[in-house]
Amino acid sequence: MSTNRELRDATGEFIVSKGPYDVFATFTIGEESVGDQEAYARFSRTCKELARNRSGHVLVAWCWGYQHSGRPHFHALFRALEDDKAVQPEELQDASGWGLTEIEPCNGNGAAYYLAKKGHHWNINTACNRSRRCRRSEGCIHDIGPWPDTGALELS
Questions:
Q1: Rounded to 5 degrees, what are φ and ψ at 151?
Q2: Residue-level pLDDT, tens digit, the chain, 156 residues
């Protein structure tokens, strides 16, 4: 039987295997009245907006939890999929709807293990720019998993 530490380490290794990542970011909701569903919807929109602004696909490894104040927040690793131009911290600086954002270049694998440690709720998805080639019946050419439905999201 695996220990929690072994499971966390295996999760971290899996997240690392999808890299290397360009940027590590933390997004925290500013208003107290925003619920889990709205927080997730903002996070999802932020990721998809990044892909549209880049005119490409972005791999997003992420987890969510609660800040000490009880407000939902997300930790995320971002990686460009189609070109050699890495995702830059400035591309996420203008993310709207967030009270606090910490964005920095990703150096090494520590952030992947941090995601595995901090979030027992985590996922890896592709933010799609919805180009013509991705709007076919098979879906996005890079999608490694659908974004969770906000109705099924359980943060507690």
A1: -70, -25
A2: 567 888 888 888 988 998 899 999 988 887 777 788 888 888 888 888 888 888 888 999 999 888 888 888 899 999 998 777 899 888 887 665 577 788 899 888 888 888 888 766 788 888 887 766 666 556 666 655 555 554 444 544
Q: CA torsion, points 102, 103, 108, 111, in degrees to nearest 10?
A: 40
What SS3 state is found at 153?
coil
Strands of the sheet containing 100-105, edge to edge, are: 100-105, 23-28, 72-80, 58-66, 121-127
Could you tell me the CA-to-CA distances from 144 to 59, 67, 124, 125, 156 in Å, in that order?
9, 29, 8, 6, 25
**CB burial string 108-138: b at 16+ within 10 A, e below:** ebebbbbbbbbbeebbbbbbbbeeeebeeee
Q: Which residues have C-beta within 8 Å of that of residue 70, sequence separation ≥ 6? A: 32
| Of 147, 8, 151, 124, nearest in space to 63 by CA | 124
Do the Cβ atoms of 147 and 102 come closer than 8 Å?
no
User: How do 72-80 and 23-28 pair as beta strands?
Assistant: antiparallel
